[in-house]
Amino acid sequence: MANELVLITGGTGLIGIKTIVAALKAGYSVRAAVRSQAKFNSILATPTVKALAPGSRLTSVIVPDILVDHAFDEAVKGVQYILHIASPIIKGEGFTPDQWESHLIQPALKGTVGILESAYKTTGIKRVVITSSEIAIIPWEEFIVKEVDTVFDDTYQIPIPKGPYSHPFEAYAASKVHSLIGTKDFIATKKPKWDVINIMPSFVIGDNELVADPKLITDGTNGAAFAQVLGSDSGWGPTPGSSVHVADVARLHVEALNPQIEGGQNFLAVSGGEHGTVWSDALDIVNRNFPKAVAKGVLPNNGTSITKRIKVDASRTEKVFGFKFLSYEEQVKSVTKQYLELLGEEVA
């Protein structure tokens, strides 16, 4: 990997910043695709990146809009690997149901296929790793509504769902299916010299160095676990009991570059085995690990988060990559520790 250059998109997100750090630690050089210089400056300012002092091993390329035609043509030149983590999806709030196809699903498909097209037009690329999702292979109703005994693994496949959709998140789930199948069709049609691996996380939980305001600690999927620790309802309603530590997701992306791992595969990233995650267990985890903060009232630890049962088997991923996913306890501890540090409180 000496002198090998990795293009990483989405570097200012929860998964992205961890992946940049993991890639640098593994010895790769990183080119971060960012929307602005200010975004890249925020990456450079994180304590871990500063401590690594990557120098010329960490550079940037400005891609203001990943959905425009040929957005990544320049960004991919000279790289050996691509880690496509950025999500082109526009959040559904403010859109009417008849806009979900044009504002959620098609942008997701275009963003993914767009970077594949840019990669196809250059030379020297060995592998593309794409951040997909478990909902790309789990039917929406079984994931969010129905109680089923099906154990979903990475061999499971579903057809492209058709609207109308009942909720923006259902349209988001459909977008992930579209992107996965669009990638498969691109590979089958174009037959590039490089291959693709899809990493399929569940709800990603963990610390995020780019969050400097404790009020933002529950943004994104961290809210499913941590809102209740702050005394609130998660606001998500019954949430599928499926989670993974952000550090494990980052590790998978980087280790997927290893040529000994065969390309053309999907890898689920879900901790807890078929038992999965029980979101309300966070309250007990925090009580045991941070009793002083709970007693002091810094962590009210009396909110609610309802679990919807789902069975997902990611054991093949653990076997292929040779490590076991960190537990839900470690996920919760990671976020709690960061929150207390941001407040200047004792972590104990």
From TrEMBL:
Keyword annotations of the record: Oxidoreductase
MF terms (GO), sorted A to Z: oxidoreductase activity, acting on the CH-OH group of donors, NAD or NADP as acceptor
Superkingdom, taxonomy of origin: Eukaryota
Residue ranges of domain NAD-dependent epimerase/dehydratase in the record: 6-258
Family: Belongs to the NAD(P)-dependent epimerase/dehydratase family. Dihydroflavonol-4-reductase subfamily.
Keyword Disulfide bond attached: no
Protein name from the UniProt record: NAD(P)-binding protein-8
SUPFAM superfamilies registered for this protein in UniProt: NAD(P)-binding Rossmann-fold domains (SSF51735)
